[in-house]
């Protein structure tokens, strides 16, 4: 997490730009807008402002060989990270234009035409008075050119030994008292210092180095029968490593070595020695003084490899989150016992040092009623959970010797860090005096990052972070929530937002999209003796679909191709060309006047007065006519076998195109409409998080540089800790917080806000506990 506020305070004070002067913008928004416009004016003066968001999102890579430009874009993206979308950025620009000219450093140029999404996409800006405002522009340029500092964590003192504190047990909902004994901690809490800069050097691994490393590993492990991994020299001899030579445009069969400078993607068949090569390479790199991060698919793999490297004399430390620590420990020990069955392990397992689930303060707890069930790991009073009589927060004074935090204490002197993709991207780097996650931390200290079993790691990333959502489903779904939330906003305000033209437009497209969802489902569910709707359901169930993909499928049917599988290359190319000529314009410009073959059938699809039988006849006639024109008699004959399916496919493609275009218009307008609502939109809290670009970057690296599709959705109303997320919850991520916000205005309204929050939370938790107590646990 970067510190992106405060850089403008001196400028604000010097030029008299106060918060009241720039309303309705926040002061930070005002300076963010001018910072971005300065970048555009300096480097892309002739481009419209919406190009900036395309560059920051990496959809456009300007000057790909310019490292300085890449650095500026990266820093600007960090500084503007609060904007979750380009539409919100355009909304801030609109508010900026309304401010008095004496405050603004930029003037808006006359618009050069219109774009599909509206006038703003073609807007350009120029500096208003470069000479008079030189100081302001110099500051903006300096901010873009210097590193963005990491945010400093809140400094919390350790509790004093010998004092009594309390903490909350979330399982029971009650406060517990802990009397910390007097003692002296023999060691200090260690931390990793942040680097302000570093020079990277390539990691060179030659065949001789790898052979020597493998032989040494076998010699050391010969006296360790408890370590199942061995025979590394024999494994290495079986590996046929052939690096790619760009100069020769082929693989080298007799390589002189491997130099890792940037990204290297290794590919091999199952059991071809990829993991063995990674382990040997890690050991060889450590012996040459490098620090290596090894990313593995699971926590059990991390613990097993930790035991291996520890047995080899390498300082290895596993990194994994604390939210599921007990589950990870249980799974690891089940695996260890299964490996040694029927006997118990006879040698101490060094990995056991890192899976402890014992809190050192456990013996000193005093729970209400004398009942003291074991604390869940997430309730251990480690950081900022111990409270004194004045509700001041403290850290546990035993962190430096705590077995739960042993890995953190050994991180600074470790040569190998072993982690999972989840921990790398989600877990905070606690030993660092800054707010950053492990993915950012390894960039400061690691020389080499190796991703083993990249396909499994990629699957894990997809399962954890690929954000997708079911459009409509029984019992409530993404679209249902959108409709309900928008309608509740109107009801709560007496429809007052409709006085604003943008709100009216938003609700008009919302109604259009809702109609298209219902018409799409009608095509999917209506009784059909010919089986067309059943075939359509099966077709859509197999993969993601859109108006683009469904009209492509229809073009293939009109050319005599089957809906699944590939046909002759010539026919496939003709079908694709037919789609581009006749359907593509409608798919991407749905609200423009319809042209081409669709012009004859769209009025029938939109006519509610037509009977089902009449509509079927007209659609069938249209399909047969255009199949004959597109693919000739043979295509017309083949279409006859798929005619019921093609009839429903045309309807689905049409309604899906309108649904997608309507929602995109809604998404564009939404940021301008949100301030008019009294009920918060059910928005996606995850899409604006700064780690989303990190997910995309890691996915691209693992897939050999190919872009990855990320589907943004609304997460379920569950506390973030249920997803192993340490960030604070908001009303959009926790139903408890949303209910607290709704209740705090009704409970003790005359008291301060903190007391109202506390009272609302007490009511909610008391209700939840009553439900749990009255639940029939036998069912």
TrEMBL record:
Residues covered by the pPIWI-RE three-gene island domain: 25-178
SUPFAM superfamilies in the cross-refs: P-loop containing nucleoside triphosphate hydrolases
InterPro entries (UniProt xref): P-loop_NTPase (IPR027417), pPIWI_RE_Z (IPR055254)
Name of this chain's protein: pPIWI-RE three-gene island domain-containing protein
Highest classification ranks of the organism: Bacteria, Bacillati, Actinomycetota, Actinomycetes, Kitasatosporales
